[in-house]
Amino acid sequence: MGMGGSEWILILGAIILLFGASKVPEVARSIGQASGEFKKAKNMAEREAQEAKQDVMGETQEKSPEKQQKTKMMDQEEKTGKKEDNQEN
C-alpha cells in the first residue's frame, strides 16, 4: 500500500508542528543523508553477499565430478609414469 497525497500533507504538518518551520529544511537534509548512508550500506552488503556466493560457487565447482576424475587420472599418471588413452583433453 502506497501513501497518498493527503497522508504526506498530514505528515508534513506534524513535522512542522514538532520542529517548527525553520527546522524543517535541516530535518529534511538529515533524513536525506541518513537515507543515502542506508542505501550505501545496503549496496555494500549486497555486493559482499554476492562475492561470498561466487566464492562458494567456485569452491563447489572445483569439487565437480569431472575435476575429481581428472585429478585421479593425474595421480595415476604420476604413479605409473604414463598417460591413459581414455583421458579427455
TrEMBL record:
<feature type="compositionally biased region" description="Basic and acidic residues">
    <location>
        <begin position="37"/>
        <end position="89"/>
    </location>
</feature>
<keyword id="KW-0811">Translocation</keyword>
<dbReference type="InterPro" id="IPR003369">
    <property type="entry name" value="TatA/B/E"/>
</dbReference>
<keyword id="KW-0813">Transport</keyword>
<keyword id="KW-0653">Protein transport</keyword>
<keyword id="KW-1133">Transmembrane helix</keyword>
<dbReference type="InterPro" id="IPR006312">
    <property type="entry name" value="TatA/E"/>
</dbReference>
<feature type="region of interest" description="Disordered">
    <location>
        <begin position="34"/>
        <end position="89"/>
    </location>
</feature>
<dbReference type="GO" id="GO:0005886">
    <property type="term" value="C:plasma membrane"/>
</dbReference>
<protein>
    <submittedName>
        <fullName>Sec-independent protein secretion pathway component TatA</fullName>
    </submittedName>
</protein>
<keyword id="KW-1003">Cell membrane</keyword>
<dbReference type="GO" id="GO:0043953">
    <property type="term" value="P:protein transport by the Tat complex"/>
</dbReference>
<dbReference type="Pfam" id="PF02416">
    <property type="entry name" value="TatA_B_E"/>
</dbReference>
<keyword id="KW-0472">Membrane</keyword>
<keyword id="KW-0812">Transmembrane</keyword>
